[in-house]
Amino acid sequence: MIPLRVDIFRSRIAIINALLILANVLAFLHELTLSPRAGRALVYSFGLVPAHEQLLFGRHGITIGQAIFPLFTSMFLHGGWMHLLGNMLFLWVFGGAVEEALGNFRYLIFYFICGVGSALVHTVLNLGSKVPTIGASGAISGVMGAFIVLFPRARVTTLIPALLLFFTVKIPAYLMLGYWFFLQFFSGVASLGMTDQGGVAWWAHVGGFVLGAALVIGVRTKMRRAAYS
């Protein structure tokens, strides 16, 4: 299922969301200018490597800055065009409404909290792994978690591929995003015990989604009070 848009009226442009998308695109364009060797070095230097994070507590480990920096920089790197475009599509569709609900500055802080939180969940569940993790999907999962709490009954126009045909349907957000979350959760459970495996960081998605949902519960309560006042 590919989300295309949501039926929520916005009174202003989601400038922070647009700037986050631009930052991701520019970072990826920079990646394309690098040689394969330099690209790998970039990923291992600025991507999140769980085994590196553990060195913070070693006798001859890394500095606090070296441990913290990749938690942020990793969410602006992507492994290919499809990785980038898929993430940015979900951020574009769901991020604008969340930004308007939270406000520009709070949305920016929220985005980074979800990104860092999801990275920490991934690290804890992949201790010792030397496989670098990159991508904005942890932070975007947080945005999706917030969306399902704030706008559960919003209709998401979704593109459905069926063999060689494509058609669109409008699906309530709680169904679409709930289905997406359970796919991530069960895939994460299936991946437990697998070390140094490349692929999708399922638990980063799960952690980001749950964190994003939890962070906006108070905002949802205020929105309900305002609607009935």
Description:
With 229 residues, the protein is mainly α. The chain has one domain: Rhomboid-like (Rhomboid-like fold, Up-down Bundle). Helices cover 64% and strands 9% of the residues. A three-stranded antiparallel beta sheet has the order 1-2-3. Strand 2 and strand 3 form a beta hairpin. Helix 6 packs across helix 7. The protein starts with a strand and ends with a helix. The mean pLDDT is 90.
Summarize the structure.
The protein is mainly α and 229 residues long. It contains ten helices and three strands.
**Number of DSSP E strands:** 3
Question: What count of domains describes the coordinates?
Answer: 1
Order of helices and strands: EHHHHHHHEEHHH
User: What strand order characterises the main sheet?
Assistant: 1-2-3
- Number of helical runs? 10
User: For the CA atoms, what is the radius of gyration?
Assistant: 18 Å
CATH superfamily: Rhomboid-like
Mean pLDDT: 90
Uncertain residue ranges: none
Strand content: 5-15%
**Which architecture would the CATH scheme give at its second level?**
Up-down Bundle
Instruction: Label the overall shape.
Output: globular
Sketch the major β-sheet: 3 strands, antiparallel
Q: What is the helix fraction of residues, given as a range?
A: 55-70%
